[in-house]
Structures
1.
Amino acid sequence: MNTTTHNLRVDGSRLWSTIMETAAFGATPAGGLNRLTLSAEDGRVRDWFRDACEAAGLEVGVDALGTQFALRKGRDTSRAPVACGSHLDTQPTGGRFDGILGTLAGLEVMRALNDAGIETEAPLLLVNWTNEEGSRFAPAMMASAAYAGEFTAEDILSRRDAAGISVAEALDAIGYRGDEPVGTRRIGRFVELHIEQGPILEAENTTIGVVEGGQGIAWFDGTITGFESHAGTTPMPRRRDALLGLAEIALGAEAIARAYWPSAVATVGEAVIGAPSRNVVPGQVRFTLDLRDPKSETLDAAEAALRERIAEIAARRNLAVELTRIWRKEPVPFDPAIVASVQGAAEALGLSHRRMVSGAGHDACNLAARVPTAMIFVPCRDGVSHNESESATQGDCTAGANVLLHTLLALANAPA
Ligand code: HGY
Ligand code: MN
Ligand code: MN
């Protein structure tokens, strides 16, 4: 940290009021957020974000998948920008901090540098990535994956939600289908601040997570076909009940994850009975499965064990079960030099910190495939996230934003 910026800090109360102000877009009665990607509420927070960035003197561009890039010029325009940011879309029962903290802390960093009249060597860039959550359109971290070259923009634009609306149509509906080709925006480094979304930092009374990587993720779509029949006249042994098949599969997924405890996790997050009726034995069920582990080989073993268990359940219950893996994100290590920068900033600020791996997926996990990347975590209450009660403290958010500020300064002012 050089002398002129050594004592520089963000304005924590301005950051906090920014988080609370934007929580009005998609606010739920329970105090959380329902701001699905490319919804009208997402459109409104994007407009707010664009205006706030422009008011801070940033130059805002939008790419073909709606990702917003806000550039703060540096002295040396030949250098690739050092980027930060996260996402502003939420889960249907989301909280006020997931993604939002990292995006608005990036705005606060720009405002703090403006207030102090500081110009960096390399430019800085603040990013709001489209559809990090993956709830409305699969996969998660969709736009940053396309930026990293994992999908073409055309493929992503054609993805459809449960109502059959395509990404392209949803982007046009809120006016965020930009003209910048995906993947062309220069980024030299990427640092993402995020709440941990887990219990470790709070349990250890530690303020900063120095994140070394992200765990692997596998997403599946499943269909179970049995036979609709009368709820009153079909004897139990003669039923081909698709819902009971799903019940056994879900319990099987839980048992397999527990067998790889404490690393593996498995979740059946969606289940839909086809043509539901209270007096018909369910004949068809569609479901999703989310499987994660820090090790690729454990993901493979857990998937194989699950497929074996499904085959046994299907044979015993005379069901047809299809399980299709629709997305696989390998475990990703972050760049050791950027991780060290984060740790250096936490140490210089005198903040308690520890190294850790992210259980959640993040846009940083995609950026890491293209540019040196790392993450900063701060605690959230009871480790809860993807829940309307998600909460963090102003002090921890401010501490995380200060680590982001000084990590960005170190990277942007380092010799080219
Ligand atoms: O699924 C995830 O880990 C992220 O919250 N989208
Ligand atoms: Mn997130
Ligand atoms: Mn999330």
2.
Amino acid sequence: MAIPGHGVEKKIRIGLSLDTLKEERWQRDRDMFVARAKELGAEVLVQAANNNDAIQYNQAENLLSQNIDVLVVVPHNGVSAGSIVEAAHKAGKKVIAYDRLIENSDVDLYMSFDNFEIGRMQAGYLLNRAKSGNYLLIGGAPTDHNAKLYRDGQMAVLKPAVEKGIIKIVADPWARDWQPTEALKHTENALSRTGNNIQAIVASNDGTAGGAISALKQQNLEGKVLVSGQDADLAACQRIVEGSQTMTIYKPIKLLAQRAAEVAVALAKGEKIISTQSVNNGKSQIPSVLIKAIAVDKSNLDETVIRDGYQIKDAVYKNLASQIK
Ligand code: BGC
């Protein structure tokens, strides 16, 4: 826009570097981020790295070469993504770590949910219902700092029960790149090692919960073993109302994506961001914005996920409706 006496105002340009678009949520993150930025007059260049560190680094360099003002990164690898922060800072651009922390770096801001608390909610929910017995823990991608926070939160709840001998953790593997097929394999192994004697599976997200439930199905154990999740994916919400998945964690992505877009635009304008929280990333205290998530099961799915328009009721209850007919 030409302003008399001020020449041409440059349009703000934001780079959004995503690890993946595989899980349903990331498409929402992208769409809501881009929409809010657009409302604020900014343009967003988006890249997705398909779970590959080198690709993500190259894409970030490419974004920086396109004269972006701010870089927003969902790192595939929370450690090696430090090099992306360095490259951006060399180019004089600020970096926001979105949803996942970038460790041991001078990243400018971290915006996410309270991930330790999410882990506590997942395990706490199951422990309330399976007060004794065998537990299988399926962690997320070992390269994702969130996966560690979920595990830490889960263990904070489970450890006292393990120490008292009330529950036993029969295995606690991780699923590479959050792959459902890895969760399926881990569950098959644990079922065969225990002779199908598992009472609860603490799956860290809905994708891995889906993999675990496929393994349960093969043994006719679907619905008989408690399974947690996270993300309120459509498939998971369907499993919850149908009874094969016990709970999920609903994260109001819209809040995070919109706030991140607003902050990115403010940073691009050179405004100072004041945050009341901070998280240690191994190097220093990183200013942080952490949003609360909600535990969801059959009883409150309608008044949370559906009421917010995150999932559509007809789609969630689709298979049940056809059974009733
Ligand atoms: C996110 C989860 C997501 C997982 C796999 C985590 O970092 O917090 O919401 O399911 O990555 O993409």
